Amino acid sequence: MNKSELPDPFEQARVESGVGYMNDQDDPVQILLRLKDVRKSAHNWKTFQSGAKPGRIVVPSEVNIRETRQIPFEVDPPEHGGFRKLLDPWFKRPLNDDYQQKLQAQIDELLDEVLNKDSVETVSEFSLKLQSRALTLLLNTPYEESEVWIGWGTHVFRSEGVALDGDKANILYDYIDEQIERAAAKPGDDLYSVLLNSEVNGKKLTKEEVKGVMILTFAGGRDTVINAVTNSIAYFGEHPESLARLKAEPEITGKAVEELIRYFAPLTHMGRVATQDTQVCEHAVKADTRVSLCWASANRDASVFEKPNEVVLDRKVNPHISFGFGTHNCLGATHARTIMNLLLKSLAQKVSSIEILECKENIEDLEQFKRKVGFDSLTVKFKNA
Amino acid sequence: MAKVTFITADDEQITLEGDSGSVMELAVQNDVAGIDGDCGGVCSCATCHVHVAPEHLAKVGSASEIEQDMLELDDNANEYSRLCCQIELNEQIDGVILRVAQ
Nearest CA of chain B to the CA of A168: how many Å? Predict the structure, then answer.
């Protein structure tokens, strides 16, 4: 009964000093671990900027493998606000009924494919497919396009054993360049075309800016969604009572989604660059050095969450920051929440139990900390209800 | 039943009625502009921020510590601020007026 557990490797450092340390390619990172510090620093975009050299706020740093600025992720206010104003309505489309009906149909079809198979490798045969197919709805591109993305494998930037893989990144960048040229030549109603025809802050978006938005959309929503889905399958595998409860009390599904996302924290942390000498919980932060905002640690902060290491399915007050906080909060959060909501509802309806046959954990190496973020593989058998 | 009046950023007045759930849910179900309730009401997203009319603050009650910590970082927050996902919809708050903060 512990394969689905995601231990908290940060507790001691969080309580004792509030920060961790990571050298990361000689551009060191102070990892902020306490919820209130993380939230305050995320709010304070003037001191802790995102608009540094492209790739620098990502940990491990991507400065050596990427030149394109991800937008709006690596842009600060006031320019940032113009981009969010354009993008927010598009990324809220998952709230529309017809979007949800299409997504529900995708999830149900996929579940029907895997139900009662003798064994299913969840990451490659379920989560990656679900994530890729759902992305066609978010981008408003043809469903068949998901086959290309599924063919890329589970990681856009990362491959097993290699934290940074420039070749894989190039596959994505070349693909996006092609798609932008296609949309420029023959505009349709997909996100590429919409962006190419949009103005932000009084100027038409350049192809490089469109590329920046698209890279963010692909990269930001891939590992994260795959981990959230895979970890959910593992959790329900070991907690059939929770699946039964969701079936009996579908009204708690929204709270369950938030709680699972708190517990999983699919994105461990995200960096910022200090624009001036400052301090966080009595630790000096020098100008032009990096900090990271550790969502995963903050979500287990016992000064805020009761029973932080337990999944309390109907947790009522749950100020988690798995989607970040403040100006740069997650653009894809509505899409992710909708996927999780419909997935939980479908699992509760269609599945009676999930047996975990085999698994291989995915452990992130943060030097001082080793964090399980999910699974490289998770082989299960789904039994229908 | 409780009546709740929302005043949006465009000064539109919307009076709604309900008897269960949270004030945020009532607002979202009726598309009150500026109340998004992204997290579904667990005090995580701060997209349901309202200013309670001063004379109604007593019946609505004050924010919990967790809620205050969220509001502290909201530039529009003042002493009348609440996250309305944390306000239960019941007869006790009948007649309350809430100004949408965003």
Answer: 33
Written in H, E and C, the secondary structure of chain A is CCCCCCCCCCHHHHHHCCEEEECCCCCCEEEECCHHHHHHHHHCCCCEECCCCCCCCCCCCCCCCCCCCCCCCCCCCCHHHHHHHHHHHHHCHHHCHHHHHHHHHHHHHHHHHHCCCCCEEHHHHHHHHHHHHHHHHHHCCCCCHHHHHHHCCCCCCCECCECCCHHHHHHHHHHHHHHHHHHHHCCCCCHHHHHHCCEECCEECCHHHHHHHHHHHHHHCCHHHHHHHHHHHHHHHHCHHHHHHHHHCHHHHHHHHHHHHHHHCCCCCEEEEECCCEEECCEEECCCCEEEECHHHHCCCCCCCCCCCCCCCCCCCCCCCCCCCHHHCCCCHHHHHHHHHHHHHHHHHHEEEEEEEEEEEEEEEECCEEEEEEEEEEEEEEEEC
Q: Which residues of B touch A333 (CB under 8 A)?
A: 38
Q: Which domains does chain B have, with CATH numbers?
A: 2-100 (3.10.20.30)
The answer to whether the CB atoms of A318 and B43 lie below 8 A apart is: yes
CB contact under 8 A, B64 and A317: yes
Q: Class assignment of domain A11-384? A: mainly alpha
One digit per residue, the tens of pLDDT, for chain A of length 385 reads 699 999 999 999 999 999 999 999 999 999 999 999 999 999 999 999 999 999 999 999 999 888 999 999 999 999 999 999 999 999 999 999 999 999 999 999 999 999 989 999 999 999 999 999 999 999 999 999 999 999 988 766 554 445 556 677 788 999 999 999 999 999 999 999 999 999 999 999 999 999 999 999 999 999 999 999 999 999 999 999 999 999 999 999 999 999 999 999 999 999 999 999 999 989 999 999 999 999 999 999 999 999 999 999 999 999 999 999 999 999 999 999 999 999 999 999 999 999 999 999 999 999 999 999 999 999 999 999 8
